[in-house]
Design the sequence.
């Protein structure tokens, strides 16, 4: 007798789950969320403590089959060179946090988790590339970060887990949750930043186009490129500034967009996670 298609004995192997950790983003979040803690010799360890707490807790609850961590590697030259004011508003990393990054990286290595860094690129671009590759390999991908910029990567196979307050109040963003919060699709969030601005990356946006207007325009036209093709259909109060600042808007979108196409050699067997060492 032939077995039913729904026969549990014929069920497929459990789908693999890739857990991607934004090392820099999570370190910053932990540093500012956890009260200052020092060793007996005066070494700050609050970011380390928060990072370890979050990662261990989530490894236990999320039960990934594969794990990888990405860190920044130098100045993001591919964005800085064309746009000299990129990140001009960003302040230097606090010294107490910089002192803890090597310890955080030691912790990651002790877990047996591979670290990815690409010279001239931020951790975001590594995460974006790893997420795309993981989804293409058929894995469900969960990104852990304190940076909402990564929400633009959300797709049917990619979700983002981020903190709301502290290091324990967290929310998972899927496509539905991104839509609920921003009333836009994930793929439109870089367009939103290009139009409305983002001071953290020195993206000034288009004068006269605030967040509310930007969302309205994107809801009607989809992407920035489509909006710019239909300027004649807009009222003068929006058409004029968009016409005058057209090139800047396109540049701003480039800055706001996370790369997903870095030359990154990935061997998923090396990312396989065998559990927390004891």
Sequence:
């Amino acid at each position: 007798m032939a077995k039913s298609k729904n026969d549990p004995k014929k069920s497929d192997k459990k789908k693999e789950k890739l857990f991607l950790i934004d090392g820099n983003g999570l370190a910053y979040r932990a540093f500012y969320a956890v009260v200052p803690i020092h060793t007996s010799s005066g070494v700050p360890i609050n970011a380390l403590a928060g990072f370890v707490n979050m990662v261990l807790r989530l490894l236990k609850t999320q039960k990934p089959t594969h794990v990888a961590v990405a860190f920044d590697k130098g100045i993001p030259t591919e964005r800085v060179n064309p746009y000299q004011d990129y990140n001009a508003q960003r302040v230097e990393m606090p010294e107490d946090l910089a002192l803890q990054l090597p310890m955080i990286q030691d912790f990651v290595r002790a877990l047996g988790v591979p670290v990815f860094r690409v010279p001239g690129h931020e951790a975001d671009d590594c995460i974006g590339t790893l997420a795309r590759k993981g989804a293409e390999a058929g894995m469900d991908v969960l990104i852990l970060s304190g940076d909402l910029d990564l929400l633009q990567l959300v797709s049917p196979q990619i979700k983002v887990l981020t903190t709301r307050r502290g290091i324990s109040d967290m929310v998972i963003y899927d496509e539905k949750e991104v839509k609920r919060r921003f009333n836009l699709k994930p793929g439109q969030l870089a367009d939103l930043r290009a139009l409305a601005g983002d001071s953290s990356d020195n993206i000034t946006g288009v004068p006269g186009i605030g967040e509310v207007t930007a969302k309205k325009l994107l809801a009607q036209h989809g992407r920035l490129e489509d909006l710019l093709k239909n300027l004649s259909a807009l009222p003068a109060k929006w058409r004029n500034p968009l016409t005058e600042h057209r090139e800047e808007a396109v540049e701003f979108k480039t800055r706001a967009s996370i790369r997903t196409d870095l030359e990154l050699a990935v061997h998923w067997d090396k990312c396989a996670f065998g559990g927390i060492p004891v």
